[in-house]
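Dear colleagues,

As part of the handover before I leave the project, I'm documenting each prediction I ran so the next person doesn't have to rerun anything. This entry is a single chain, and its sequence is reproduced below.
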Amino acid sequence: MGLWGDVTNTMKTELNNFFELSTTGIYTILLYVSEEVTLTIAKLGTYTFSGGYYTYTGSALGKGATNLKHRLARHQRKDKKKFWHIDYLVADQNVSVEAIIAAETIKKMECTINSYLKNLKGAKVPIIGFGASDCRKNCKSHLLYFPELKTVDYLIQKLVGHSQSSTGIFSVVVIL
């Protein structure tokens, strides 16, 4: 059994190859901050991000520019107009996208996935309100920090397993 287990509807694909993705779904971006960085995040204020691994969970349930494929492509670009909180973080030269777990669904489930991640050992909320300005489930933040994590493998395994067992998720794609 490999890193992703023998889960049937899971695919691995290259980071810039989105043709397999559904048009609607939820996603978790696994980020790596290579060295401490201080950023001003829109109206949230100025924050220091310690080096290490972070997750950001969101949804893309719209059509056209707001669908899953376009949203994930946007989140990977460094040069863009900063619209969402995550734009400020991923645009920094010390931040890299290590993997994305995307799940096909028509339900707004990012709070469910975020809550699952928040309950994993070592998860911390680094900034109250980050990516959660429209959150109705009191997540506090859709950005989480895992200071003790050495690789993203653990998070990938956990997310794929949890997503595959969640009602309302049709398939899961691991983008590396």
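The helical segments are 68-76, 85-90, 110-118, 153-165. The first strand starts at residue 10 and ends at 13.

All the best with the project,
I.
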